Amino acid sequence: MTPVVQTAVHRRLWALVAILAALPGPVYAQAPTSDTAVKAAMLYNFTKFIEWPAIDGGRPVTLCVVGRTAIADALVQSVRGKLIAGRTLSVTAMASDKTLSSCDVVFIDASETQRSAPALKTLRTQPVLTVSDGKNFARTDGISEFYVEDGRLRFVINTDAARRAGLQISSRLLGLAKIVRDGDAP
Question: pLDDT tens across 58-95, in order?
Fold first, then answer.
């Protein structure tokens, strides 16, 4: 190969590498991730961008799941061996929604949102991040809601609900979210 041809080949290879690097995710060396695993990873990542008021630094960050135990199982895999601000993480699958105030993050499966509505009302002013994949959850009872758009899992954050709960949400996380406020139409 002549030096001119080699240079042209190298440019094309580097252009291909640049195109692959610009794609939204590794499309070639990774199997599709399940919806459950993505939700679990997002819940774990949310904890990195939330500040709770006056939490005892020695106790773990508690993530509770009401509903499908598959989310709790995937969350256990996501947080194993990881720390948030020097604190360990604990995952609990809740058989009942009566003790949610002991949690720092609560995920309520869409199938459980109606049944959990009374417990959620008691959490409105407590420093608990409430998340669900139930439709309009962030506009009615909770702080954050997962939804699917164009085949991708996205999330909504109700900034009024977060403020009422005393939670500080990083602008980096807010920049990735669809923002809603109390009273916004669904």
Answer: 788 899 999 888 889 999 988 888 888 788 899 999 87
Tokens matching residue 53: 């008021």
Burial of 133 (0-12, 13-18, 19+ CB in 10 A): buried
Tell me the HSE value of 99 on the side-chain side, using a 13 A CA sphere: 10
Higher pLDDT, 100 or 107: 107
State the Cα torsion 174-180-182-186 to the nearest 10°. -150
Backbone angles phi, psi at 113, to 5 degrees: -65, -40
Q: Given this model, what pLDDT does residue 18 score?
A: 35
Q: Quote the tokens at residue 42.
A: 């997002």
Question: What amino acid occupies position 3?
Answer: P
Cβ distance 44 to 9 under 8 Å?
Answer: no
pTM exceeds cut of 0.85: no
